[in-house]
Amino acid sequence: MIDEGRALFQQIADHVADSIIDGALAEETRAPSTNELAAFYRINPATAAKGINLLVDRGVLYKRRGIGMFVATGARDLLRRERQESFAVRYLDPLLTEAARLGLDPQDVIDLIRDRRPAGGSIREEQQ
């Protein structure tokens, strides 16, 4: 679960963000505490706090004094937008560059993706 090649605090932030995107942590519900995260991942509470603070700084989590951290309204949409942009930069931009180099048009790329998708995988159908 822990990737030795990445900073632990970033991994903690990413795991909490994944839980929000996946719906395991709903908006306006309490997020795991620093101590809970530290115990679960067997890390220093200061490291867990640093990961949580990344999400607070981005407006994903907020603190209710004396109660704990909560998932902010709109956090899921914010995280999905950020991840979609990151996905586009990391995967789509190089794919489109190579497709252009090969002379593939957008429909050729769509066909290649459909042919290679895993069984049961879903790709939104274009409106026809």
Classification by helices and strands:
mainly alpha
Gross morphology: elongated
The radius of gyration over CA amounts to 19 Å
Share of helical residues: 55-70%
- Please give the CATH class of the largest domain: Mainly Alpha
Query: What is the CA–CA distance across the termini?
Result: 42 Å
Architecture per CATH nomenclature, i.e. the level-2 architecture of the largest domain:
Orthogonal Bundle
Domain count: 2
Task: Classify the fold: give the CATH topology of the largest domain.
Answer: Arc Repressor Mutant, subunit A
Averaged pLDDT: 92
Number of helices: 5
How many β-strand runs? Answer: 2
Strand content: 5-15%
Low-confidence stretches: none
Task: Give the strand line-up of the largest sheet.
Answer: 1-2
Order of helices and strands: HHHEEHH
Major beta-sheet overview = 2 strands, antiparallel
Domain HTH gntR-type: 6-74
GO molecular function: DNA binding; DNA-binding transcription factor activity
Organism: Gordonia iterans
Protein name: GntR family transcriptional regulator
